[in-house]
Amino acid sequence: MKLSLTKNPSKYGVLLVNLGTPDEPSPKAVKKYLKAFLSDTRVVEIPPFIWYFILNGAVLPLRCKKVAKAYASIWTEQGSPLRVIGEQQVESLKHLINEQHSVGLTIELAMTYGEPSISSKLDFMRQKGIENILILPLYPQYSATTTAAVFDKLNQAFSKVRNLPQVRFIKDYYQNPLYITALSNSIKDFWQQKSKADKLIFSFHGLPKSCIEKGDPYFEHCEYTAKETAKVLKLTDDEWMMTFQSRFGKQEWLQPYTDKTLEKLPSQGIKSVQLICPAFSADCLETLEEISIENRDVFIEAGGQIFDYIPALNNRVDHIQVFEDILIKNLNNW
Ligand SMILES: C=CC1=C(C)c2cc3[nH]c(cc4nc(cc5[nH]c(cc1n2)c(C)c5CCC(=O)O)C(CCC(=O)O)=C4C)c(C)c3C=C
Ligand SMILES: [Fe+2]
Ligand SMILES: [Fe+2]
């Protein structure tokens, strides 16, 4: 489909938004980042006056050093992988739109927490005279803890603006056939280099179980993603499974847990596994360190033999085409 706009292309902006990441892998920068992230009531639903003391008195002092060390193990010369890959995704999308549709749209990357902030990018677009803004949170599966947090930041930024732009907000894209195709292609590509493992594990970022009980549709979105991808790959039920990683705090989170599963699988005769993390549009701490380093160790120490991590869709052409498809469908005739 060709992109057809009703106004001059200079009037449109597209903002891709990911979570955010520290500026450097130091305890001080990690503290600043975690403080902003974990103070958001969308992320932690404990009453703020109680959470304030737990966060500042226990969580931050105990966590910052350890997490800074984990960031240091995945840091690149250009910076944190989440931000570096996000910038590459924006450049590739600009290139694709320019090449395929001969339109030079304003496309920017922002982060919910830290830099570049959503409000700075909205200011930039306002100064450019942009009237229509498409917001694309880089979370295929909706959750109030991530996607709705983007919506809140937009509202906070707009609360200071008199003359608002027109805004469209993408809630999710897990059902987009191009997204499922890109995921399955990335797995097929991996199987070209290495043969299939005993089990393919779709490991999603977890959520407290209470979020689902209160109506967050994230679990359903994850289930659809894994099932549809397994269907495209023609996998039988015993060849794949779905797990949840990145538990935080003492509450019960979505199960089965990725680390606990990896601990058990070798005793059930599963000696080789391949993990893919479809909730992450870009590789980051949770995939490069928690999965590829920590969870690999868990599996091998439990008697597993081969552990492979299949990279996030990152800057793959078929991933950028998912964004292109979302852009065209939402900007056409707007
Ligand atoms: C406190 C609860 C958390 C919820 C709920 C949560 C949901 C959630 N997060 C992502 C994506 C990412 N999370 C990342 C890091 C991260 N997540 C939490 C906590 C919750 N996440 C913490 C405390 C951290 C920081 C690291 C740590 O201290 O362990 C990241 C990586 C950022 C990076 O810099 O690389 C991403 C991405 C999703 C998709 C999600 C719910 C669906
Ligand atoms: Fe997280
Ligand atoms: Fe983690």
TrEMBL record:
The UniProt annotation places Fe(2+) binding at H205, E286
Principal EC category: lyase
What are its E.C. numbers? 4.98.1.1
Known catalytic reactions: heme b + 2 H(+) = protoporphyrin IX + Fe(2+); Fe-coproporphyrin III + 2 H(+) = coproporphyrin III + Fe(2+)
Q: List, alphabetically, the Gene3D superfamilies matched.
A: 3.40.50.1400
Which Gene Ontology biological process is one annotated for this entry?
heme biosynthetic process
Annotated GO CC locations: cytoplasm
Pathway linked to the protein: Porphyrin-containing compound metabolism; protoheme biosynthesis; protoheme from protoporphyrin-IX: step 1/1
Q: Which GO terms describe its molecular function?
A: ferrochelatase activity; metal ion binding
* Location in the cell: Cytoplasm
Keywords carried by this UniProt record: Cytoplasm, Heme biosynthesis, Iron, Lyase, Metal-binding, Porphyrin biosynthesis
Ranges in coiled-coil conformation? none
- Which InterPro entries does the annotation name? Ferrochelatase (IPR001015), Ferrochelatase_AS (IPR019772), Ferrochelatase_C (IPR033644), Ferrochelatase_N (IPR033659)
Q: Which SUPFAM superfamilies match?
A: Chelatase (SSF53800)
Q: Which family does it belong to?
A: Belongs to the ferrochelatase family.
The task this protein performs is described as: Catalyzes the ferrous insertion into protoporphyrin IX.
Protein name (database record): Ferrochelatase
Q: Which organism is it from?
A: Pseudoalteromonas denitrificans DSM 6059
